Design the sequence.
């Protein structure tokens, strides 16, 4: 049986990236809390899940990804009522003091939300977790080429959506 | 966009800091996980039929035919035993207690037999005389005198 200090270590090492990854999917703080808690409850109940796992982060990201996909499917009806969803939406990015920067982050959060979940997961893991395509492929249980192509498609969409704002900010700099 | 511009764009995105996990969640989530862990520990000590079935299947799996044969033999033995137990009371019930006339007749026959055999002490003494070992010379004298 895995002892609680072990759970504490797992939390301290992995909770932050899992939180950011989940928030990018759910965009709801309460949902993110529930999914993150479910992951740690699962680890507490079945500590043997991590036996023989070489890359804890990749394994936990896979758990989080599956849980997030399940959650999105479950709340499908809720998300269709766009007004309610917009009222609760939360950006995965930290608030910025600079208004231009804040605008860019808000646009980026919106553009990410429009990506299909598969592309969003790969873009998040590549850009903000710094994982290689090999690691992403292992974490999401997809071929490496698929991970790379999803990243390209996702990044192209982000670039298309953010280009006017990005160009404007570049000129201002 | 050119490759260099693309890299700059990626770098720009990469520099956007992510929101931090609320500090109070640590206690909440670890407490929930701790509760789940202790419930799981308690649950492991409890008897569950599924656990018993699993253990039995582990025990019987290596030689299922042999165990099935043994079980069949025991079932057969128990079946025979129960069938005999069931028959015994029927036999007892089929014999009605002896009538008064038969009892009187048996008593009379016993009395007649006792009269024919003589008093009890004589017979016992005779039995003793037969079984006590004696010297051969005494036996010869007895034969001669009779």
Sequence:
């Amino acid at each position: 049986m895995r002892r609680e200090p072990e759970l504490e270590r797992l939390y301290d090492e992995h909770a932050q990236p899992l939180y950011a990854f989940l928030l990018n999917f759910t965009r709801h703080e309460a949902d993110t809390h529930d999914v993150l808690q479910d992951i740690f409850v699962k680890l507490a109940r079945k500590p043997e899940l991590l036996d023989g796992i070489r890359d804890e982060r990749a394994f936990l990201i896979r758990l989080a990804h599956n849980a997030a996909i399940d959650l999105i499917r479950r709340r499908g009806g809720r998300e269709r009522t766009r007004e309610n969803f917009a009222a609760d939406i939360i950006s995965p990015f930290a608030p910025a003091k600079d208004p231009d920067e804040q605008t860019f982050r808000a646009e980026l959060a919106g553009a990410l939300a429009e990506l299909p979940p598969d592309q969003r997961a790969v873009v998040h893991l590549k850009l903000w977790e710094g994982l290689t395509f090999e690691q992403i492929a292992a974490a999401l249980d997809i071929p490496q080429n698929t991970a790379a192509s999803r990243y390209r498609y996702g990044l192209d969409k982000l670039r298309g959506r953010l280009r006017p704002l990005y160009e404007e900010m570049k000129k201002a700099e | 966009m050119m490759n260099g511009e693309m890299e700059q764009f990626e770098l720009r995105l990469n520099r956007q800091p992510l929101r931090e996990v609320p500090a109070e969640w640590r206690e909440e989530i670890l407490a929930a996980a701790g509760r789940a862990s202790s419930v799981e520990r308690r649950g492991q000590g409890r008897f569950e039929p599924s656990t018993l079935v699993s253990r039995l299947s582990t025990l019987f799996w290596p030689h299922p035919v042999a165990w099935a044969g043994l079980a069949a033999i025991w079932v057969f033995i128990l079946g025979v035993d129960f069938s005999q137990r069931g028959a015994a009371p029927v036999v007892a019930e089929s014999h009605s207690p002896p009538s008064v006339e038969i009892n009187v007749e048996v008593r009379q026959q016993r009395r007649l037999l006792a009269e024919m055999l003589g008093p009890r002490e004589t017979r016992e003494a005779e039995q003793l005389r037969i079984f006590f070992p004696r010297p051969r010379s005494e036996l010869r004298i007895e034969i001669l005198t009779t």
DSSP finds seven helices and no strands in chain B. Residues 42 and 97 of chain B are 64 Å apart (CA to CA). The two ends of chain B are 150 Å apart (CA to CA). Residues 121-146 of chain B form one domain.
